[in-house]
């Protein structure tokens, strides 16, 4: 199912496929000594764009996790915040370790209203995912302003979705301060060098396939690998 991440003021951005399920009930802790004690629920959802196994039943990551997204325009360094989003980071790390992101392209760029580059769909269609879904992790987000939005600062790394609790593999990089509803799990930041690269891609524009300032980036951003640690 093709889904869309509704943006403020009517602008739309391709989101992840329909998926759901990551929880953090404090009474549901790991009993085998593995993981962080945060329970993650990966619900089957659709056909996987690539053959991958679901992550462990409990979050495997905590604290800061460093990653590098190697792309055709250069390396984008990222710091993942597993304390704020343990299940999201554990899923991202699992997919990276299974080479899910290898040889994929960032399929959507927006240059008006909201300023983001969206990646993580092996099909490049905006509808591909890993075959499982997990819940939003929004507790660390601030309360919205009177207009129902919050600031997503430049450098933010967040999950795209198709509605509440429908996270999969698609994520977006905010390259310019943007306002959105507090509905998108923030799971890290990209470094200054990576942000500069994305801004250069944005400056080259989009093919406007989805409307003015919304489409495939004119400068292709092809991911060769994501390495963690």
TrEMBL record:
EC number: 5.2.1.8
Keywords in alphabetical order: Isomerase, Rotamase, Signal
Domain spans labelled PPIase cyclophilin-type: 71-228
CDD domains xref list: cyclophilin
Calcium listed as a keyword: no
PROSITE patterns found in the cross-reference section: CSA_PPIASE_2, PROKAR_LIPOPROTEIN
GO function term, MF aspect, one: isomerase activity
Enzyme class: isomerase
Signal peptide as annotated in the record: 1-20
Reactions catalysed: [protein]-peptidylproline (omega=180) = [protein]-peptidylproline (omega=0)
Alphabetized InterPro entries for the sequence: Cyclophilin-like_dom_sf (IPR029000), Cyclophilin-type_PPIase_dom (IPR002130), Cyclophilin_A-like (IPR044666)
Family according to the record: Belongs to the cyclophilin-type PPIase family.
Known function: PPIases accelerate the folding of proteins. It catalyzes the cis-trans isomerization of proline imidic peptide bonds in oligopeptides.
The protein's name in its UniProt record: Peptidyl-prolyl cis-trans isomerase
Protein species of origin: Nocardioides mangrovi
